[in-house]
User: What shape does this take?
Amino acid sequence: MLRELPADQSKKNLRDLGVSLTNMVAVLSEHSNEGFSEEALELARESVAIHRELFELQGEMHLKGKAASLNNFSIQLARQPKVDLRKEALEPARETVEIRRELANHHRAANLPSLASAISNLSNRLSEQEDNLSTLEALALAREAVTYFRELVKKQRAAYLPDLAKSTHNLVNRLWDQRDWKSRQEALRLSRETVSNRRELVEHEGATYLPDLAASLDILAVRLLELDDRDSRAEASFNRLEAVRIWLVLKQD
Assistant: This one.
């Protein structure tokens, strides 16, 4: 295996090792519920160290690899059960965004999708900090991510509609945290948009997106019930009923 190479391995072998670790992290992440979470975290940590070394040795040609490894590391930290580890996820998420912005400044079209995803991750990490400044920054970043994914959807709707739906879902949560009437009305509008986009995904892609649609319907229903007026309660009941029907279909499958 690449991990058994001698200490004086070539730069190419070091790069290959970094790629191998990144791929292993991706595979283990898919089985995090099977007890591989800690192993994935340690591999992600090692991948970051290797990509930092490559960047020091060969400069900007390894900037994308460095950003990808930092993003994976942040995600793995955020999945850990220990609070201290989850809080560590913020710094690599922030560094990822800084690198992705630099890359997008030079080649916007090629790097915009990765920048938008990195911004979404940083917004989520900031929302977990529970202080006012982090909450406001998380909201601003969530808006920025939605703006970028809207731009991408205009050019390649099928490819980026799932990402737009995720980003509007995240922005809904950030807006609802603000608690003022204007923010919550915007959140409801975006929540309905998320439901609409996920309906479209179900129509074109089938059952793959049914759980996401059901979850969006449930969330919209909960938000509407908090308004506590007759029209909102009626809309909430309609959405909740549709969600239940979807969950029952999924349960049968």
About this structure: Residues 1-8 have pLDDT under 50 and may be disordered. Residues 181-205 form the longest helix (25 residues).
